[in-house]
UniProtKB/TrEMBL annotation:
InterPro entries: Dimeric_a/b-barrel, Tscrpt_reg_AsnC/Lrp_C. This is Lrp/AsnC ligand binding domain-containing protein. Gene3D superfamilies: 3.30.70.920. Pfam families: AsnC_trans_reg. It comes from Candidatus Naiadarchaeum limnaeum. Residues 6-73 form the Transcription regulator AsnC/Lrp ligand binding domain.
Length: 75
């Protein structure tokens, strides 16, 4: 199992919309809005790094209101 923390930047005013969308995903274990350089921090668990990569590219970065992501993979 691979655990990652993804820091997400959204379009202004779309934080809650994006948060609600990503919380519906089984891969997202926790997520919350935050203040600072990022708008949302999400804890994600996937079976492999490849599946993690696929989820981030297709499901997170694919959301219309997501501007950027920064991923930290746990050891």
């Amino acid at each position: 199992m691979v655990t990652a923390f993804v820091f997400i930047t959204t379009r202004t005013g779309k934080e809650k919309d994006v948060l609600h969308k990503i919380l519906r995903e089984n891969t997202v274990k926790e997520a919350t809005t935050v203040y600072g350089d990022y708008d949302i921090v999400a804890k994600i668990e996937a079976e492999t790094v490849d599946k993690l990569n696929e989820f981030i590219i297709k499901h997170l970065r694919g959301l219309q209101d997501v501007s950027s992501t920064n991923t930290l993979i746990g050891l």
